[in-house]
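[Automated response] Your request has been received and processed.

Submitted sequence:
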Amino acid sequence: MAKLKTFTQNPGNSAICYYRYSSDAQREVSIEQQKEAAAEYCERNKLKIIKEYADKAISGSRDDRPEFLLMLSEVKRMRPAYLVLWKTDRLSRDRVTSTIAKKQLRDNGVKIVYVAEPIPDDDEATEVLLESIYEGMAQAFLLQHRKNVMRGLNYNAEKGLYNGRKTLGYKGKPDCTYEIDEQTAPVVTKIFKDYASGISMKKIVDDLNGSGIKTSRGKDFTINSIRAILQNRSYIGEYRWGEHIISDGMPRIISDELFEQAQAQLAKNKRGGGQAERKLVPDATADYWLTGKLFCGECGASMQGVSGTSRHGYKCYYYYCSDHRKKLCNMGNKRKDVIEDIVLYVLNDLVNDSALQIMLADRCYNYYKAEHSDSGAYIASLEASIKDTEKKYDNIVEAIENGAYTKKMNDRMRDLESQLDLLKEELDAEKLRQKCELSREEILRYLHSFIGDVSKPENRNNVLELLIDKIYVYGDEMTITFPYTEDKRTLKYEDMKSLLDGRKTIDEMMNGQVDPRNVPPDLLSSMTDTGGSDFFG
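Generated structure:
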């Protein structure tokens, strides 16, 4: 029988540290908290830190983390005696990746120690067992949370309660309805008034950012964030969460008239704006529903919808490259009906293919977990920040009571009060989110709800927004990319036109509009073998 390889630890007290957090929402304080805890541990145990590694906002389920890979590649050369981790799941949330990494570390004489999980180091077998138990407990905890996902969200939505979704102009807290935020509601009103009066989104964005005003998430405004605000029906009092719609569930910020004026301006600009309308005379009734998703494959610029009249007096509809108009790109106009028919075919495949739905649900879930995992440290850091801010506030109050009052102290107190409000609101929202874990089954049911006729504008637009990332148009083909995955699908115009024409003929034949004897003999076989590739194949 082969003899098991024993672990021989590198001599000395040198240590490396690895830190990780999964979500941008956790901010830098999560890493800082881990660093402080590791430093205290090393000082207490007389270990000398020789290098630190940190992967920021990267899920522990991924095995391509840059600092993680760098650490594994350097241990053979550095030969540290210890690797200090905050918890077992910092190394990896994937058990296979964790096992491989631990073997590589131990083969190079590195002993793994944990700051926040008590694991005795005098018995290797017990150490391995406890590591496995901690990993299993973490996974079981997540599974238990997942059971109450939609129950809590649906309960809140039925009653029009705050569901953790931040919206500019409103404030909210658990178990309460939304309230108007007196500080940011005027910003919303100004955005609507400016846009309805003809001011461009770019000018609105520049003005807001130049004034230091931030979005509901504390970030700079973009054209996309302005567009989302202008299309948000919450501002006319409509509460929406999934299928739940309450017409008067939100406190109104703007009037119906102002909202409709903004929508009319959006529709006008979607067709190419005032300048394009004068030059190309687009049909005001045309729906260029791919605008915002369609991009030139040659230069990457967005593609807009326009129309013109042919020499014979026929109205023609196209998508054109915005940089082509500036003579920066050679991409010509593309027929609207051809492009849209191909995309409709793809959307229909997406919503009616059960295998694709399962794959999409799985990838959406993995993306969700990567973005919303490991919130315990974030909650702890928020609570620590609240405690620290309250202490600073109390110190100023005490100083004032002792007679040391200045205007600067008063201004500082106001800043601290504002910080406390934001921190407490964020803490409430984070605790609520932890109680509402999303599951693969719920994502799958949501995708399944789109099955039907995607030619209907509402169905079509929902599926397009949810399942298509970007569409790149080239000379003789188009490439469709998808969110949550690097996969894509490339379709040639001629192949797709032949397929779609064939399907139309088959439909007409089945409806008695075409004599079957006039159908080409190879048409039926072409319906089952298009010569193209499957999604994500």
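Summary generated for your ticket: The first helix runs from residue 29 to 44. Residues 24-28, 145-149, 272-282, 523-537 have pLDDT under 50 and may be disordered.
If you did not submit this request, please reply to this message.
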